[in-house]
Write a structure and sequence with these properties.
Number of strands: 10
Radius of gyration: 20 Å
Shape: globular
CATH class: Mainly Alpha
CATH topology: Glycosyltransferase
Distance between the termini: 21 Å
Strand order of the largest sheet: 3-4-7-8
Length: 421
């Protein structure tokens, strides 16, 4: 069976009628930024199904505009994943008719996905009114981030939980998490360790802090403010993807006969604000409570490469190809600085390479004319997928698979690479 056929098999196997789960067992529900990347791949298999993927997610959007990071499948056991719907209690905010969801968010890559899905089959999208229906939802989503999450008052979005970054247990969160009192491990039951090796997952101590932050947010009715959030961090990945998605919204607006100017102005504003996070050839997170940059080597600091017109782009290329990431040698992008003692090639976001992040950087390099390096990353991803069999993440040095098997966004990214480049 060809690599393309294998990718299609994963996506078909994980389809649940109106959305795609990230992977069997470990991830039995719909995840927010997973669905965006999945839709980008699905558009090559079924543009209609790709549209439905995003429509399903935004069907669970909250009234304040937030897009929850998990939409729970009512057909799955309520206690099959922790924290599940009984923990988040979203019905207390949204009412019992609304879908059960979590209360936190994930990076805003959805408008980019919506535009890419539209371009795959404009005729079907126009006939269904896909952009007309999803555009106001995307505008509302970005509005929530812009107005409710500028907790530092610097024009940048703050995440209020490590899970909101998508990079759950990055070493970048170690310092701000120190101020969070963990819930004792005996007071909750982790379901992830029933499906994955403990050496590849966050520790019980970190998980206890995650649970504390989520419970505090829930108990404050999911209100946003520094008095609620012990963890408030301006994340370069989140803000960069917001800029990229605002650029996509400008394109969507043009297609719909609307003015792209508000979105173009937002791209420029974010591009001007991002240098607040930049130093030493990399972008870093900013601890709002601590009032300082979190110096480190997270791959999140390379993601601004995708922002249109970013002046620091060449510095990021130099850092990516230098000893800290060695992407030109590896063909993959480690999630953390290879030279740092905190680098761990197996444990979640503390070192392994992820296909969605490598895809983003490959896209950024292509947009900037660095085609040779972009081709290197494309080849590295395809080789890693072949070797690991569509695993959740891989050792960046050996491409040995880690985490969940039959991972949807891995398959989606591979399908996109095989079809478009």
């Amino acid at each position: 069976m060809s690599l393309r056929d294998e990718a299609v098999k994963v996506l078909l196997g994980n389809w649940r009628g109106h959305n795609t789960i990230p992977a069997p067992g470990l991830y039995p529900h719909q995840w927010s930024w997973d669905s965006a990347f999945i839709a980008i791949g699905l558009r090559h298999l079924s543009p209609l199904r790709a549209q439905q993927e995003l429509e399903s997610l935004f069907g669970a959007q909250w009234g304040d505009g937030r897009v929850p990071h998990i939409v729970f499948d009512p057909a799955a056991p309520r206690d099959g994943y922790f924290p599940g719907p009984d923990f988040w209690r979203s019905e207390q905010v949204n009412g019992p008719v609304h879908a059960d969801t979590s209360g936190i968010v994930q990076p805003p890559v959805h408008a980019l996905a919506a535009w890419e899905v539209f371009t795959a089959d404009p005729e079907t999208a126009r006939r269904r009114g896909f952009l007309e229906r999803i555009y106001p939802k995307l505008v509302s989503w970005h509005g929530y981030l812009r107005w409710s999450r500028d907790l530092g008052g610097r024009g940048l979005v703050s995440i209020v939980h490590p899970w909101e970054s998508g990079m759950d247990n990055s070493p970048s969160w170690d310092v701000p998490l120190q101020r969070v009192e963990p819930v004792p491990a005996g007071e909750f039951r982790r379901r992830d360790l029933e499906h994955a090796d403990a050496s590849e997952r966050p520790t019980d101590l970190d998980y206890g802090r995650y649970v504390r932050l989520a419970a505090t947010y829930r108990d404050h009715g999911y209100a946003d403010g520094l008095d609620v959030h012990e963890f408030a961090v301006e994340d370069p990945l989140t803000n960069s993807l917001l800029a990229v998605s605002e650029d996509a919204l400008a394109r969507i607006a043009r297609e719909l006969g609307e003015s792209p100017q508000p979105h173009e102005e937002e791209v420029a504003r974010l591009r001007d604000a991002l240098p607040l996070l930049h130093t030493d050839g990399l972008f870093h997170s900013f601890d709002v409570h601590g009032g300082s940059l979190i110096r480190g080597g997270s791959v999140a600091g390379l993601v601004p490469l995708v922002v249109p017109g970013l002046p620091q782009a060449q510095e990021l290329v130099d850092t990516a190809t230098g000893p800290r990431f060695r992407v030109d040698e590896l063909g993959l992008v480690p999630s953390y600085d290879l030279t740092d003692p905190l680098f761990d090639p197996s444990r979640y976001w503390r070192g392994p390479a992820w296909f969605n992040i490598t895809w983003l950087l490959q896209r950024g390099l292509t947009d900037r004319g660095a085609t040779d390096l972009a081709r290197t990353l494309r080849g590295g991803m395809l080789e890693a997928a072949t070797r690991s069999g569509f695993r959740e993440y891989v050792d960046p040095r050996t491409a040995e698979g880690r985490g969940a098997h039959h991972f949807s966004w891995t398959a989606a990214v591979v399908l996109d690479l095989l079809t478009t480049t």
